[in-house]
Amino acid sequence: MATSTQQQWVLEGSNGFDSLVLQEAPVPKGQYPFPVKDSVVPLGDGAGVVQAIGPQVTRFQVGDRVLPIFHQGHLAGSLDAKSIKTGLGSSLDGTLRPYGAFDEERLVKLPENLSFIEGATLPCAALTAWSALYGLQGKAVAQGDIVLTQGTGGVSLFALQVSKLFSSLYIGSQISTVRQGIRCEGDCYDIFKGEG
């Protein structure tokens, strides 16, 4: 008989990782849109340091700061039936572990100007926002276009930053709650607050 609850890590409070607690939670019932293997190590985001390399590795050296590619079998173009089955934390073991072995083609260098925490947000949320704005050939957001997002999660915040970078009109819900951390000036409009 399948279990109905599981233990999971959650943040409770506003003290960052000092607020991390283990709690019981319902087991999700088939709501994730990608394949998930049993007993998978969760998470697809992460950043780390190369600890060792094999004799054939040419792209990295021990000590390099790196990020994983979220879909390990997807290097370019649209996701297909094969590459969609290579997601970290779903079909393949994810990053919630101290060490992992990756093919050198499945990692990228962490930009030098980013901390590990900043870089760890890039493989999923940032890439999802970038793909939504620029991933479809012939449908990339251009200057003056309108970008509409919902909420203040990672994907929405990256979409806000990227759309502002390319001078698009940004419309979002609840953006006034994040203005303390992100400068939302000019063509930036909160649909719920009615303010720009």
Automatic annotation (TrEMBL):
Domain of life: Eukaryota
Entries under Gene3D superfamilies matching the protein: Medium-chain alcohol dehydrogenases, catalytic domain, NAD(P)-binding Rossmann-like Domain
Domain Alcohol dehydrogenase-like N-terminal residue range list: 15-112
Protein name in the entry: Unnamed protein product
Species: Aspergillus oryzae var. brunneus
